[in-house]
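Deliverable D4.2, example record:
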Amino acid sequence: MGTEHIRNFCIIAHIDHGKSTLADRLMEKAKAITPREFREQLLDDMDIERERGITIKASAVSLYYKLDGKEYNLNLIDTPGHVDFSYEVARSLGACEGAILLVDASQGIEAQTVANMLLAVEHNLTIVPVLSKIDLIHSRPEDVKRELETSLCIDPDEVIAISSKTGEGTDELFRAIIDKVPPPKIDSNDKLKALVFDSVYDSFRGVIIYLRVFDGEIKKGDTIFMMKKRCSYEAQEVGVFAPKMKAKDKLGTGEVGYCIANIKSIHDVDIGDTVTLAENQADSPLEGYEQPAPMVFCGLFPSDNTEFHPLRVALDKLQLNDASFTFEPETSQALGFGFRCGFLGLLHMEITQERLERESKISLVQTVPSVTYEILTTKNNVIKISNPEKLPPVTSIKEFREPIVKAKIIVPSEFIGAIMQLSEEERGTYIGTEYLSDKRAILTYNLPLAEIIFDFHDKLKSSTKGYGTLDYELVGFEQSDLVKLDTLVGGKRVDALSSIVHRKEAEYRGRKIVKKLKQKIDRHLFEIPIQAAIGSKVISRETIRPISKNVTAKCYGGDVTRKRKLLEKQKEGKKRMKTVGQVQIPQEAFLSILGESE
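Output generated by the structure prediction step:
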């Protein structure tokens, strides 16, 4: 098939606007699956995706559709909608020439709709605007078309209205994809250049790499060369996703598929690497992808210390499939050996932990989430820290800076006041307001990232009855009055519970932590003080009373001095035990505190 009959496109939208449902309907319409094979969220392979009803990993599928007597190869990539998985979207856009911009006809434009649209424009993709869910009673297609025209400068006459549930409008969508999305560009030198846009690890077949061929062709038996890793392998199988892996003799220019080459080590594959032929190498690699910078960090520790090595193997495999995830070993006095992990957001962190526990059967303990801070030292050096334990002494800190994000909050007009008040409470700086229509507006604020990762999203949903949506991007670092909040149990600092907070919130958070620990730590034979402190200053305290044995129970009457001696002896024993005794902090106490912090 010539490249003039190939179209590579993806579906981009806000979360829950129907991307996966539309992908299901397109596959059914193109007869890529039989009615017997059809099920909802067909491209969402992971159980966690199906349970939560969200897409976490981008998925590819090749469709073959006939129009006006000609057969076209349509390569579709279904992408996530949540802001935490925007890197998956960016990788997908790099393998396409066009994008379906999907907007819910009842919800209208949301925060991630705008962000994904701008991302597609940056990649010079052709946009095919589509309204979904027009079969719903409360859909308002005309209003949403006006919003698209006002905010994104999209001609309302070009918007295609569809229902993924009933199939209405899918024929018009197929025609628009073929007519509007340009075929792949052909380079003249014919040397193989294929972009690795994803990869997975198979226990039996090794690393399977997902490719978009930009030039040349790759055949079974070819010796391929990874230009970044400088490694050569023999291509044992190449093929396409239809939607399951289907072997072919070759992949030509413009096609999207996979390659199995007996790659045993997961460290030999980099997302964004260029694949070429060993005997006829390309002169220069493709541009690849910009490595995303993690925004949220936390420690992951196995509940059983013997599972440290299995956890490392599981993290390696996960990183192969998720290039935005980072990790490095760390040690905690309270939790033992574990890893400091970086994520793009709280949902990304939550999903990653759940995937690790499910796929590797390892029980994990997670420390307090943190962001990256900048420290200007007294020697005028700037250092970045993501772990509170690596904070330099206070006397050597000249300036403490925290990350600031530019947040776009889309809300119904009646909730503008509530959201402005919420943003002010979270130390936000007002930037501006833009009206999408007389009923909906975009509020723009500069907010500390640390405030967003704790509970801002929950408060936003509560304040807007679930209608508010949020998108944000990092804009830089600003000086702030930050302090390190330590937790001491029995006079000893518990490093796993240390965090960096704003000074005005330190006392409130400290009180919450000590009260929660008092409820979860069992009574010992000696008194246990639980303290929250900033440096050497204790800002809150709770005390767990000791278990007391009635040592005078056997004394019946007689001289009171005998009872007094026994009580003094018990008092001395408890005092001695307090200095040498070890406080046992149960895992449930860590989990309750860390869950509260989120």
